[in-house]
Structures are given as structure tokens and as C-alpha cells.
Queue: 2 jobs
Job 1
Amino acid sequence: MRTPLVAGNWKMYGSRERNAALIRDLILGLENGAAAEVLVCPPFIFLHEIGRNLGGQKIRLGAQNASAEDEGAFTGEVSAPMLRDVGCSHAIVGHSERRILFREDDRLIARKFVAVQRAGLTPVLCVGESLEEREAGRTASVIDGQLGAVLDVAGVAAFHDAVVAYEPVWAIGTGRTASPDQAQETHAHIRGMIASRDAKIADSIRLLYGGSVKAANATELFAMPDVDGGLVGGASLEAGEFLRIIEAAA
Ligand code: PEP
């Protein structure tokens, strides 16, 4: 039995004041517990303060990115050990916005995945195809390439403590969601790919769906057998909506 996980990717949104209100409302809303694990991923600059506000709470803290290096002359970068130092338990790697806008390739993403684990954090590895790739019938081969690159570098055993998020690029921030069947088909493919290397790890790893998840579509997506929760962007910035999505996962 896999405990569902609902993660909020705040992207480059927020301010100290808005974050404090959002975190306060989430803590209040989760006062009576939740059957899902909850993770919030604010921008780097806010992590320390939010980590302190979350002290003793069940909400976990994650980063949206991490350097592949632990320290050194890498201006503007933030390393996984630093993220751990300010209270993060997770870090997203390979988000499509990083892949597309910042040209991060599979090799770099694999190195980031390894660096995140080396620091004792759980990587949330994002994979997903573009609209063009889906329409060309290439969804499975794109996923094979993205996931295979990390499996080859990190080894399947590393997925014992990792999360994979399937995020079709055409569904991120577009209001267009994969249908539950489309999500299930790709999640089953991902689990099968991991199972071909280690069946036990495949069975226990949590696979999140991301791409315009809202309270209105979360229940049917999370009901699919291989969907173990969600990676939520826009809808995680509004406490009431995010809480309803968490309820749907439970
Ligand atoms: C995301 O940022 O990972 C995401 C899925 O965004 P949205 O929910 O806004 O589509």
C-alpha cells in the first residue's frame, strides 16, 4: 500500500507575507490530519523561513531544483547539502520548465538526482512529453529516454527513495489535463520500466501526476491504480483548493 503524496510546486510565486498566510491556512486545514503526505516547494529564498514555520508540523519542505555540485565556484547555484541544512526533505529535479527554459539535459538531471540523494534528500524526478511528441506517438519513448538516463546513472536501487512525477508538458499551466486513462497508461509504463529492473522497488515507488491538477479533476486522476498523488503547480498557491486536492488523494 503506497501512501499518497501531494506536492505543491509554487514556481516563482510568493512573498514572505503571502507565504505566511498560505502556510498558516494549510496548517489549520490539516489540523485533524491527512491520509496523504504533503510537501510544499517554495522558491529557494523562502525555504529557510518556511522551514522554521513548519517546525513540528507534518508538512514537508522541498526545493524546486538543486545543483549537481555540493559546493564550489558555481555562482547563483544552490546545493543539495544547503537545502538539507535549511530543512528540506525533498528536491524536484528535471521539471520541464528547467529542461526547456534552462536547457537542462538528461545527463545533468541524472547528476542532480544523485547529488540530491547524496545529501540525504528524496528526489522528485519529473518526466513528460511535449504535445508534438504525444501526437507523434512518442510518449513512451520520450519517457524511456528521460527515466532511463537516470536509472543508468543512479541505478535502480536509488529509486527505493525517490518519487517520479509524470508531467506531460502540454498539461502544465495550460488548464489542459491528461485524462485519467492517459495518466494511468503512462504511469503503468513508468512502473513497468522500473519493474523490469526491480519489481519490489517498482511496487513501492510513488508516481505522481502533474499538469493542471485541480480539486475538480483530482479525485478521478488519483483513483487510477498507478497514480499515487499529484505534483500541483498553480492550484497549490491557494490553500482551500490545495486542501481539497489533498483530500482527494486521501
Ligand atoms: C507544475 O508546475 O509542476 C505543474 C504541474 O503546474 P500546474 O499544476 O499549474 O499545471
Job 2
Amino acid sequence: MINAPKGTKDLLPEESYKWQYVEDIARKTAGLFGANEIRTPTFEHTEVFSRGVGEGTDIVNKEMYTFLDKGGRSITLKPEGTAGVARAFNENGLFNSALPQKLFYITQCFRYERPQAGRLREFHQFGIEFIGSKTADIDAEAIVLAHTFFSALSVTGLTLYINSIGCKNCRGAYEKALKEYLRENIKNLCPLCETRFEKNPLRILDCKNEQCKKITANAPQILDYICDDCKEHFETLKRLLDVAKVPYKINPFIVRGLDYYTKTVFEFVSDNVGAQGTICGGGRYDGLVEQLGGASTPGIGFAMGIERLMLLLNNLNVQIPNNNRIKLYIAPFGDENAYNVAFNIAMALRQKGVVTEIDHMNRGIKAQFKYADKIGAEYVLVLGGNEIDSGVAKIKRMIDGEEITLSLNEVVNYFN
Ligand code: HAM
């Protein structure tokens, strides 16, 4: 037997209806905020991510699925959605349309990480990117969108953490202060943070290593270093989140793992799913579009891992309706003509949009009832010689066994 590669998962029918439900709410919620869907390729030229996400990040350094194609080009399976969307924004001249461009996507992503609950090598993100506006109100709107989506799914117990990591004008001063503070402890940092010290000192702040956490506990805080413009931006964001009644906590240790962020960063975190508690992460990226060859264009967005979200919904016991449920199972037997009639009724019902199933295994009548029960059919219609001759049949409601007698001509009208 051949197994699926490590870190990948089959999505089986017993789960897929839940995904359809969640994706449907994602599309509807994004639509309510004026966002339209964008689909970018599964793979991009590697430089989209090395330049976009950043050379110093774990994603680019360690986690990308990169290979040379048969034409010798370096290709990478997308580890996230934002850089590809920014590339598409530039390439397709979306900057010529009315701004902001409000976009959303549901896509698979690939990261070579150590698999564990809520962490896969192929996973899926629902994300949004609002490109073209630099105002803090659109940051608030992005966060409110995520909050609205979680509420629509009855997700509870999430904490929203927000922070500002400043802009290119003020980040330097903070990095300098942080490095000065950390310098005497470089040797006590974990090996990864030791390498981050020069290239990406901010990332040391969200290291999960206990020793690193201890060292950074009293580090200087970025909010004390950001410039007036970034400060005002952050104040407006907080005010609008208050207006929208979206609760949040300011957390100076939220710095995010991708290089493109500026000003606002945020995460929705759950303590209901184990170690991988960040369900959704995002922030502003005012330099990304330019970094990928476009004109200087601000942007903000987020992405959430759908597998993590499904894990959370499961742990919270959120009931998800199965809209694919079989309404009527038709059980023809005995009479040769019965299958013709059953087939006709099934076709007419499906044309009306009623989910209908029919026997395909030549089962006896008892086995057919067993099967109908197994597939969760709501009603069963039995069609044997007697029913065909009399033109009258019984429909059984499976939940309580109640039977309704109907003329065969009325069956199609009975369901809607
Ligand atoms: P990220 O924090 O790298 O941000 O990923 C966003 C979410 O994707 C995470 O919070 C998590 O739920 C999910 N995720 C990440 N890696 C895995 C994995 N290996 N297995 C399962 N789920 C995973 C971004 O990707 C940014 N592009 C978000 C963004 C959009 N920022 C601005 N716009």
C-alpha cells in the first residue's frame, strides 16, 4: 500500500462537508466587506517569496518546497498567500482599478515543517488582502472581518493580540535598543536566536524557548520607540476596535515571522488546540508591493489555517450542518419495472434540487434499509411489485418510523 506523504492529509467525505460549510461562511463574510476572490498559482518563481517573505525568515530559510523545473527555473510551492497576491497585483495592473483592492483567497500552502496536530506540510489558508490604503481604519476592518467570521462560526475563547512593529523610519532605533539590551546575553540565547541577533532581532521576541523568553521578558518595548505617525495609526486602530466592540490585548511580543510587516500586526490565539494555538495572523505590509517590483503601495491582510480552525471547531464541539444529506433513498426491489420508476422519480427530484439516492447494489429490502440508515437518508421510499401495480407507495421517515402513503405521482411534489 502507498501512503500519503508525511504532513499531508486526505479530506474524506465525513469531514469535507464541514470544510464546505466553513469555506462558504468565509466567502460570505469576505463578500460582506466588499472583498472579491483571487486565485493565484500554486507555485511561483522562488524570488516572489525570497524577496517578499524575506531571506531571514524561517519560511524562506528552512521550510520552502523549492525545486528546479525541467526548464531549469527555480520554482517554489507557495508557503503563504500574500506574496503571490502582491505579485499578481503588480503583474495584472490591479493598481489601475479603484483602490483599495479588497481580495480574499482560500488556498493550499506548503511548508516543510515538523508535522504535529495543527501543523502540516500541506495546509490550507483562508486569507484576505486589502491593498492600496494606508489608513488605520482599513486595519480595523481587516481585524473586524476575521472577528465577524469567527462569530459566524460560533468560535469562542479566542484572544486577539495586537501590536505595532513600526515602520522603516522608527524600526531601526528600536532594533538598535533591542540589540544593545540582548548583546550581553547572546551566548545564552537558543542557537536559532543567536543567528537571528544580527539579521532579524525582532524575531527573538516571539521565540518559544523558555530561556529566550526569560531573557526577553524585560527587553525594551517597541511601542515606546515608534514614531508619531505609527503611534497615531495604532491609536486609531485601537479606537476603531473599541467602536466595533472587538476585544483585544496589546502584546509587544507579537512580531510575526515574515519580513514584510510594518506598523499593525495581530494574531487570534486559542488555548484550545494545543501547541499550535495561532489560528489567524496578519498585519500591514506597506513595502511588499514595491519590494516585488511595483509602485509603493500599502496593504494589510491576514490568513488563518483552516486545519487549525477545524481542530478548534471540533474541540469546541461546534455542530456543523451537513447540507449534502440524502433527503430520499429509493429502494426498488422484486419487480423489473420498479427500477425504471425509481430512476424516473430520482431524476425528477434531483432536477428540483432534492438530494436523492437509489439502490445500485441489487440489495434485498432489509439490506437496503440498513444502507439507507448508514448513509443518513431522511426518508425511504420502497418500490416493489405491489407499489408499481397499485400506483401507491409508502414513504418512511427514518428518525421516527412514521409512514406516509402517497400516490406515485405525488412523490416528486411531496419533497421540496
Ligand atoms: P502565517 O502566520 O505564517 O501568516 O500563517 C497564517 C496562519 O496559517 C497561521 O496562523 C496558521 O493558522 C496557519 N499555518 C501556518 N503554517 C501552518 C502549518 N504548517 N500547518 C497548518 N497551518 C499553518 C501568513 O501566512 C501571512 N501570509 C498572513 C498574512 C496575510 N499577513 C498579511 N496578509
